[in-house]
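Project outcomes to date are best conveyed with an example. Our students and postdoctoral researchers have been running inverse folding experiments weekly, and each run begins with a structure described purely in tokens. The record below, which covers 193 residues, was selected by the lab manager from last quarter's runs and is presented without edits.
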């Protein structure tokens, strides 16, 4: 295999993307077609094609392993955050809730299934919900950090919440991880008076 073909394949492998592999395969294929006009043997062409295919399979395996490791890490992190006093949550790239911890559920007065998707919004006090949703939608729509932002749950608990985007290897936002700290509860405010 010549240096140009190797560079094309290595470049695709380093970027680790399917479009890059497709482009590399197309480029090598074009080179093969041009080479066949210049007498390159079918064995060399087959070898080149097999090498591109093998590299694609290797990259697919690496992607699958990285995805599995990422998933396992997220599960471990969720388990570690499940019983902290801070209120933790995770969303998808559209800002829809995919997980909240036990403390979040306690203060929101919800079950896990009720908080998923956009259901978490049902726990926000009516006076705070419009402004909160607007700020959240703006942050998610632009891939920005959110907060810190203070709001009340319907039970009267005042919290300060913030979230940061999680990025994929290509810098695209894949979701948000966030936390809220309870500043006061209705019971605390009653005891202060």
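After processing, the design step wrote out the following sequence:
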């Amino acid at each position: 295999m010549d240096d140009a073909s190797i560079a094309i394949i290595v470049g695709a492998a380093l970027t680790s993307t399917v479009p890059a592999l497709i482009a590399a395969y197309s480029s090598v294929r074009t080179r093969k077609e041009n080479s066949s006009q210049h007498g390159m043997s079918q064995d060399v062409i087959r070898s080149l094609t097999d090498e591109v295919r093998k590299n694609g399979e290797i990259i697919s395996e690496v992607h699958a392993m990285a995805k599995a490791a990422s998933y396992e890490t997220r599960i471990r992190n969720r388990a570690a955050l499940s019983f902290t006093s801070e209120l933790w949550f995770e969303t998808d790239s559209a800002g829809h809730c995919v997980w909240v911890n036990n403390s979040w559920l306690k203060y929101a007065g919800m079950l896990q299934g009720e908080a998923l998707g956009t259901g978490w919004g049902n726990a926000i006090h009516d006076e705070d919900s419009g402004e909160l949703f607007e700020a959240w939608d703006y942050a998610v729509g632009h891939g920005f950090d959110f907060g810190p932002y203070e709001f009340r749950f319907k039970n009267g608990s005042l919290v300060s919440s913030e979230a940061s985007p999680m990025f994929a290897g290509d810098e695209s936002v894949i979701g948000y991880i966030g936390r809220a700290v309870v500043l006061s509860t209705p019971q605390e405010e009653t005891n202060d008076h």
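The longest strand covers residues 173-184. The two ends are 82 Å apart (CA to CA). The training component of this project remains on track.
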